[in-house]
Amino acid sequence: MRDILFVAGEASGDLHAAGVASELRARNAPYRLIGIGGDAMRDAGVELIEHVEQLAVMGFVEVLRHVPKHWALLRNLRRMIRSGNTALLVLIDYPGFNMKLAAEATAAGVPVLYYITPQVWAWGAGRLSELARTVTRAAVILPFEERLLREHGVTTTFVGHPLLDRAERLPSRAEARQQLGVPNEVTMLALFPGSRAQEIGRHLEPFVATARELERRRPGLRIVVSAAPHVRLDERACPYPIVRSASFTVLRAADAAMCKSGTTTLEAAVAGCPLVVAYRTNAVTYAAARRLVKIPHIGLVNVVAGHQVAPEFVQSALKPNAVADALEPLLDATSAARARMVDELARVRDALGTAGASRRVATMALELAGSAERREAS
């Protein structure tokens, strides 16, 4: 039995890859599923080579510290790809590492399916020609990506955002609050400081300080912190209840959320939860990013909308009082600001396509693996 090799280097990629793996298992795909990922992929039947929590890093400075481990893993994966037993390489996000693997697989004659491609629309436009050379097929999850990649010679399909698959099972506000033990009449703020240790280190203090300021302004405000299963939070620095692996439940229960930039902002849009975007990173990383990034917004909810839907507080602008000023009207069920944002978030959700991304990517995977095996046999 030949292998389908998955590589997801972060927690979000683990979830998306797990959806595809589950679909392949449900179809009794005649392949062994192996790869790099996390608990979700393992639970979906993927035999893990390396756990994602050993790899998740961010930023230019942080990546440098992990170079030896990444090169060792790359050498191991190169041997596997060249062994002749890999029918298909499925890459999920994690571009710094995965683009190298795509080149290796192409050189070895192994088809490459890239699911959730590098954000070339924000930075790294030079990667477009590299994608065209090394990726057999791309499955993109943002509506404007399909045309951009096709224009540069990449065979691309917009499959819809995988968040919509999870959204098919969204609880109601009342159900979510019952699960969290939050009374319906209580105003609730959700904090999403991030899924990586570096993010937590830079975000937790200003996020908690913002919550403290809002508690001062709104006595009785309930605060809940959402965290990935592997994230460790210092309870001395985080005095609020922590809910793990239930981001949609937290967002459905919340009146508003404070989110680090990234996929969480789209989760808020799908859940219909008003939000602000906050982000702080290493000063060197930020300085480099400012020279490279070609778009005006960092929050994905704003990128998809094409304009600012949710206020953004980046680097030195991440000040608790300022963020609290933006969040306060969003916590008010009767405010015009909240009503406007809810309408905008609904439009963002509509732009993300329809549920079924995992099914579509699984179909693509079987087509690519099967066609490659037929070519080899002929």
Give your account of this protein's structure.
It is a single chain. With 378 residues, the chain is of the alpha/beta class. It folds into two domains: 3-160 and 356-377, Rossmann fold; 166-351, Glycogen Phosphorylase B (Rossmann fold), CATH 3.40.50.2000. Helix content is 49%, strand content 16%. It has helices at 11-26, 39-43, 60-65, 67-82, 95-107, 127-134, 145-151, 163-167, 173-180, 197-217, 247-253, 263-271, 283-292, 300-305, 320-330, 336-351, 357-377, and strands at 3-8, 32-37, 47-51, 86-92, 112-115, 137-140, 156-158, 188-192, 222-227, 242-244, 256-260, 275-279, 312-314. It has a seven-stranded parallel sheet with strand order 3-2-1-4-5-6-7, sandwiched between helices. Helix 4 runs parallel beside helix 5 and helix 9 packs across helix 11. The chain is elongated, with a radius of gyration of 21 Å. Residues 57-65 have low confidence and may be disordered.
